[in-house]
């Protein structure tokens, strides 16, 4: 019998890309803050800031993939003033992060606990390590969130550690980089111009591989792992991810194209 996997945030950029790759191997249920469909499968509208709403879809679930976040794009479009001007936009987005990333994440964890979910894959963010840190990073370093959003992602990691330690849930926190490629946008174009090794890009294929591996790995009770594709001069270390059996298949080049890593690199 296929394990039942609940994908939370299925219509987001990552969810809509990786969920279809799971359909053959798992019994997948899809939820988001709005209704829709993916490859013919319905996506149910569920408000995760409402505990009763998320609890109502947790019955019989074996694994949760929690991808939902407060979306600045949904609130502001391509306007990024909320990142630099500490005014109304900053407070509006920060409050949205509290509602979705803090309250909503607690509700998802708690509903999963109550319904006996064994495996929880939490989409954290590489930004939990990036605050004021120009040197090479590793997942064993003290965390340094780069902004308010990444502070709320740290909450999810700590909540996962608590639910693993106290309630026996198996929790894997994936510190995701920036999905690559993306539709053209001013901010993304700026990222593309940065040196390859300092970009935080991860291809959708590498993302799908990491999430699938986080669902099937055995013997991991809790862990937090950087998930990025390789690049020349890379400063974001993904070595710890080998502990749950994943490493990137792709290397991203300076011009934004990517290719398979050579056999020697893949064995490192």
CATH topological fold name: Rossmann fold
**How would a textbook summarize the main sheet?**
8 strands, mixed
Uncertain residue segments? none
**Distance between the terminal alpha carbons, to the nearest Å?**
36 Å
Q: State the domain count.
A: 1
Could you describe the 3D structure shown?
This protein has helices spanning 15-18, 51-55, 72-76, 81-84, 88-114, 148-167, 186-193, 204-216, 263-267, and strands spanning 4-8, 27-32, 36-38, 41-45, 63-66, 119-125, 170-176, 178-180, 201-203, 222-227, 230-231, 250-252, 258-260. It has one domain (4-267): 3-Layer(aba) Sandwich (Rossmann fold), CATH 3.40.50.720. It contains 9 helices and 13 strands. It is α/β, with parallel strands linked by helices and 268 residues long. α5 runs parallel beside α6. The strands form 3 sheets. An 8-stranded mixed β-sheet has the order 3-4-2-1-5-6-7-10, sandwiched between helices. A 3-stranded mixed β-sheet has the order 11-12-13, with no helix packed on it. The chain is globular, with a radius of gyration of 18 Å.
């Amino acid at each position: 019998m296929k394990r039942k996997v609940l994908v939370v945030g299925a219509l987001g950029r990552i969810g809509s890309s990786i969920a279809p790759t799971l359909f053959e191997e798992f019994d997948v249920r899809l939820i988001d803050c709005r209704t829709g469909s993916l490859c013919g499968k319905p996506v149910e509208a569920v408000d995760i800031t409402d505990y009763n709403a998320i609890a109502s879809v947790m019955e019989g679930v074996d694994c949760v993939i929690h991808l939902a976040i407060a979306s600045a794009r949904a609130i502001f479009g391509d306007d990024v003033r909320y990142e630099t001007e500490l005014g109304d936009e900053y407070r509006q987005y920060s409050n949205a992060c509290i509602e979705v990333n803090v309250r909503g994440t607690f509700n998802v964890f708690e509903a999963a606990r109550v319904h006996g979910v064994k495996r929880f894959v939490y989409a954290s963010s590489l930004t939990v390590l990036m605050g004021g840190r120009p040197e090479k990073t590793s997942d064993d370093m003290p965390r340094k969130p780069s902004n308010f959003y990444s502070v709320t992602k740290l909450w999810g990691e700590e909540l996962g550690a608590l639910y693993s330690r106290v309630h026996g849930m198996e929790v894997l926190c994936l510190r995701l980089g920036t999905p690559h490629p993306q539709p053209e946008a001013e901010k993304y174009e700026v990222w593309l111009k940065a040196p390859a090794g300092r970009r935080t890009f991860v291809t959708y294929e590498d993302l799908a591989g990491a999430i699938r591996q986080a669902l099937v790995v055995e013997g991991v009770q809790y862990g937090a792992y950087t998930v990025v594709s390789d690049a020349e001069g890379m400063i974001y270390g993904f070595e710890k991810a080998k502990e749950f059996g994943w490493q990137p298949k792709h290397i991203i080049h300076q011009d934004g194209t990517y290719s398979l890593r050579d056999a020697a690199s893949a064995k490192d």
